[in-house]
Amino acid sequence: MNRVDVAILGGGLAGNLLARQLRRELPDASVAIFEKSHERTYKVGESTVEVATNYLSRRLGLQGYVYENHLPKNGLRYFFDTEAKDAALTDMSEIGVSVLPPWPSFQLDRARLEEDLLAMNRADGVAVHIGARVKDLQVDADGHRFTVVHTPEGDDGSNASEEQWSARWIVDGTGRESILAKKLDLRVPEKGHRIASAWGRMRGLADMDDTGDDEFHARVRWTSRRLSTNHFMYPGYWLWLIPLRNGITSVGIVQEREQWSAAKHKPEGFLSFLREHRAVREILGDDPELLDLQAFGQLAFQTKRFFGKERWACIGDSGAFTDPFYSPGSDFISFENDLTVDLIRRDLQGDDFEKQVDLADAYMKFRYDITLVIYQDLYPTFGSYGLFRAKAFFDTAIYYNLVFDSYLKDEHLDPRHIRSSMRRRGFIMEMLQNYAALFRNAGEELRAKGRYFEQNTGHSSVDGRAAFGPLETAGAPRNRREINERNEAIFAHTRVLVAEALGESASADAIVDGSKKMYDAWNRLAPGGAS
User: What pLDDT does 525 receive?
Assistant: First the structure.
């Protein structure tokens, strides 16, 4: 019987990152990865945002590696179209940044990253088993047991061999295959957020940075639009273009199930739908090379638990998934892996880790809930520039003020902070739900007035860095009053932006008050303010 402290099922992004973190933080713990596939392939989830990038750099020491081997990301960028979907890229209204963001993020070639991480982990002493399929998993707090079927590369299975293993901790990183989650019946369908997606990697697309005249490029100070995570926004769905290495672009569709058709699961239907949109059609060109295509008829799902007192954890897509919009998947991995390592550390040190298991599990469920609420029933608002300008401001400012700032301080690893978050859970959810209702109602009003698309050409808001305040101060010491002041400023400015989208004469006092609250809060934290 082979034994290991931590057995990680799956050698994808979540499992590989966890293995590296365990070797760095718990070097005396034995770690093994079991990955059934011999080949690393393209995967969705190439775009990272600030929490995940900080995790890669601060926890795992990969900052030099990602700069050298992947692409820096020029923020999130959104384009808006006419109702007929016939606007040229240069005419579309645009939301984004005109200078590189102060906190780094990246566009990751997942196949390259996972291959490199496996090599790094092997060199760091992780027992990496490739072509290793796990079966007959028995979950037991006194030691998990399972069989590993080893199949040589290129073999049809006739030369497979089996080994018996036991592990103190078992971590499911098998993605939607979810070996452990299925074994324990953890998966819960997400009935409140029904979205579907199809995506693939392409070669031969036009370079967005070669499109348009000098005025178009000067609008963003000649920064690279191509390096952004580019969203093309429509009522009920959105399209993405994400650049990867070697001239490859990830292209995807995410749409409400009510509008979805299975035709998009095939290359002809996928490309046909993309070509219905003039700007995207011109970027694709006449004959793009489609390297792969994948699709899911339903993306979002919940879990009954992320962590168990029997010494197990589910990370990445083995746990739960909300929505790819705003690229939160790798953020979830960062939180889950941090909490998993914390639980394993407590256990190996002989601490009472069981109480912390429930706290960690409650915290991840809270993260799921507050992420889902910014998407649920809000896809109908996505296609209006004026309204989404308000929503993008609100979502991003709240992310920096509450999520990213907190992660930089490692508050998710502090039991007192988790308990405080659970006490305030009802208030936070109510606040987010109230603003979701504000956006939904505004979208319905714009539709009723026939004004939903009226600002979708000829407008731009590319001062994203300035709009969200002095982002450089994220992670700085703040008390609860200062955090609340910034929240109030975000709330006030959001209401002003919604009023502007509706064309309402928000009173001059209200506009001044909303703007003043925002900039006063920014300036109190960082003299000089949002410059």
Answer: 45
Q: Where are the alpha helices (DSSP H) in 103-197?
A: 110-123, 179-183
Q: Is the separation of the CB atoms in 388 and 233 below 8 Å?
A: yes
- 161-172 and 187-189 strand pairing: unpaired
Specify whether 173 is located in the same domain as 236. no
Length of the chain equals 531
Same domain, yes or no: 338 and 323: yes
**pTM of the shown model:** 0.94
Task: Tokens 């402290």: give the residue.
Answer: 5
Range of the domain at 258: 71-107+194-296
Residue 215: both structure tokens together: 């005025």
In a domain, 410, yes or no: yes
Percent composition of the chain: helix, strand, coil (DSSP 3-state, to 5): 45, 20, 35
- Residue 95's CATH number: 3.30.9.100
State residue 154's pLDDT score.
82
Indicate the residue type of 430: E
Task: Judge contact between 254 and 213, C-beta under 8 A.
Answer: no
Q: Which residues of the chain have pLDDT under 50?
A: 506-508, 511-512, 519, 522, 525-531
In-domain check, residue 531:
no
pLDDT value of residue 531: 27
Domain shared by 149 and 270, yes or no: no
Q: Which two tokens stand for residue 418?
A: 């988790």
Write the burial class of residue 119 (CB in 10 Å: 0-12 exposed, 13-18 middle, 19+ buried): exposed
* Cα 462-463-465 angle, rounded to 5 deg: 125
Strand-pairing partners, residue 163, are: 148
Domain tally for the chain? Answer: 3
Q: What is the CA radius of gyration of the chain?
A: 23
CA 219 – CA 221 distance, rounded (Å): 6
Number of C-beta neighbours around residue 443 at 10 A: 25
Pair 264, 199 in one domain: yes
239 falls within a domain? yes
314, 394: one domain: no
pLDDT of residue 526: 44
Q: Do 234 and 319 sit in the same domain of this protein?
A: no
CA-to-CA dists, residue 413 to 132, 369, 451, angstroms: 33, 19, 46
Amino acid type, 278: R
Question: Is 165 part of a structural domain of the chain?
Answer: yes
Task: Return the number of other C-beta atoms located less than 10 Å from residue 99's C-beta.
Answer: 15
Residues 174 and 234 in one domain: no
Beta-bridge mates of residue 295:
198
Phi, psi of 296 (to 5 degrees): -130, 135
In this structure, the dihedral spanned by the alpha carbons of residues 465, 467, 468 and 471, taken in order and rounded to 10 degrees, is: 40
441 and 305 in a common domain = no
